[in-house]
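Late entry, P-hydroxybenzoic acid complex.
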Amino acid sequence: MRTQVAIIGAGPAGLFLSMLLQRHGIESVILELHSRGYIEERVRAGLLEYNTVQLMHELGIGERLRRQGLEHGGIELRFGGRGHRIDFRDLAAGKCVTIYAQHEVIKDLVAARLAAGRPILFETTDVALHSLDSKNPHVTFHHNDVAERLDCDFIAGCDGFHGVSRPAVPEGVLTVYERDYPFGWLGILADAPPSSPELIYAHHDRGFALLSMRSPEVSRLYLQCASDEDLSLWSDDRIWSELHQRFATYDGWKLSEGPITQKGVTGMRSFVAEPMQFGRLFLAGDAAHIVPPTGAKGLNLAVADARVLAEAFGAFYARGDSDLLAQYSATCLRRVWKVQRFSWWMTQLLHRFPDESPFDHRRQLADLDYVTSSRAASQTLAENYVGLPVQGHDISHAGARL
Ligand code: APR
Ligand code: PHB
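Prediction complete; structure with ligand written out below:
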């Protein structure tokens, strides 16, 4: 087999990249480890930045999003038993975010890709990358138990944190920056109407809690827990009791309960590998960086990388101009680090740390007070939350180059 860009992984990074390349008339083949059913059902995050929503509409894959997405013009920060609204439309030039599950995005992208007759090879195993520092890289893998070889001009490593692309970069090339957090999130889906029209990020002495949703009938709720929390110790009653305590207010606000349909524990980590390129391999999304979920940035960051990479491939194939490809890593990393900063800031603002001192605690409360009482501070939160501009979006203007 031969293609122009071999894409490893059919997550948000790989699928958005493939759609954007198609728009530039560039051929790609996607190799995905799991089955279509698996990637279309796996429960993950579900909050889309303003630009991500716009992109789905531009790509002509926004029809279900338009019908089922829930637009949110703000969030609530809850602490000391009181809620404080951050109004995005007012603070971030009329922008909002949209609740729409990541696996629904995946379904829309897979359907569009297959409808266009473009290949996604599901359940490919033993993917290995070769000759990355030559002009003729190739990928070997097994599909339907047959050994295959895919020759290409470039490889896009979009295979997430545990994929094979980043480890294919020779030792000593990448510098890794990381931070683990001494806690995780216990997340549930419940058949209960969301108790609030907007997300609630709650700071509480017992630990952080987040109220989110998937639809007018389904709530998504999270509780700060130990990073190695044993789920078997968490009965449904214990989960609800803990949520009630962490969301309690002085004005009698009520959390509605319903049957819990899914439970899981997620670890929290910040991670960046630099540069996001080696020879003809370009890393995008979780393959290159991880953020803790507090700012809901993982998916959106993957989409931003895909946009920058697609613009760069576009310039290469249209004009033989490899400048943007050479700048890909630096262009992405500049935004990646700002998003890392925001995700870390939201995380340290809202969680209880096991080793925190009374000073740390008072400073955290002052930070919450400041961000909810100063227009400048709430605006900073709002512009980051709805999403910072993507360089790839207007990268063709010389002035936007870094
Ligand atoms: N070969 C082929 N495919 C692979 C391999 C492999 N060796 N390893 C992993 N994959 C696939 C995974 O099955 C998955 O479908 O690569 C895809 C990577 O997708 P994501 O992990 O979703 O990563 P990304 O596209 O970068 O999106 C990042 O998704 O869930 C999140 O927290 C994450 O929000 C972030 C966003
Ligand atoms: C989610 O709905 O899954 C979600 C929302 C906001 C976050 C994290 C996760 O910050």
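The mean pLDDT is 96. Will revisit in the morning.
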